[in-house]
Amino acid sequence: MHIAVLNGPNLNRLGRRPTDQYGTETVAQLEQRIRVHADAGGIRVTLFQSNHEGALIDRLYELADEIDGVVVNPAGLTTYGRSLADALAECGSPFAVVHLSQPYRHRGADMSDVFRDRSAVYVCGLGWRGYTAAIDGLADIAARDAD
Fold first, then answer.
1. According to the model, what pLDDT value does residue 107 have?
2. Which of 16, 96, 126, 140 could form a disulfide with 130 if both were Cys (CB 3.0 to 4.6 A apart)?
3. How much is the pTM?
4. Sheet holding 121-124, edge to edge
5. Among positive and negative, which fits the CA dihedral 140, 56, 111, 13?
6. Could you give the CA distance from residue 2 to residue 67 in angstroms, rounded to a whole number?
7. How many Cα atoms within 13 Å fall on the side-chain side of residue 7?
8. Does 2-146 carry CATH code 3.20.20.480?
9. How far, in Å, CA of 59 to CA of 48, rounded?
10. Domain map (residue ranges) of the chain
11. What's the CA gap between 104 and 93, in Å, rounded?
């Protein structure tokens, strides 16, 4: 199984962003945790972070024919990244959305998330553990679909 992990705008600043909301880990530490977890499950991961929606879409399309799923933290694109949400929905693989924090607590219960309704897995508020839960959720979907 091969999963792409896409991290959106501002996640390159993890560890320096408000730590009460996003934690103290850097993106490099987060990526290491993801790799260790994926390796333990025999899952290949390709990691990519960009502050630009188009770069995230380009990377997704580069990988589309070789991946079995996508984990995405849309970050700053959550409320308006329709192009990325459309690309994820069209790439042919299930995708999981991860938010490190609980965005509805910070932005209000009426916050719009253009990724939520199309995702196969949706995880909020678990910090870095949200990525491992999302990977496991996508692996479960792949195993179910293989039966």
1. 60
2. 126
3. 0.92
4. 44-49, 2-7, 69-73, 95-99, 121-124
5. positive
6. 5
7. 20
8. no
9. 8
10. 2-146
11. 27
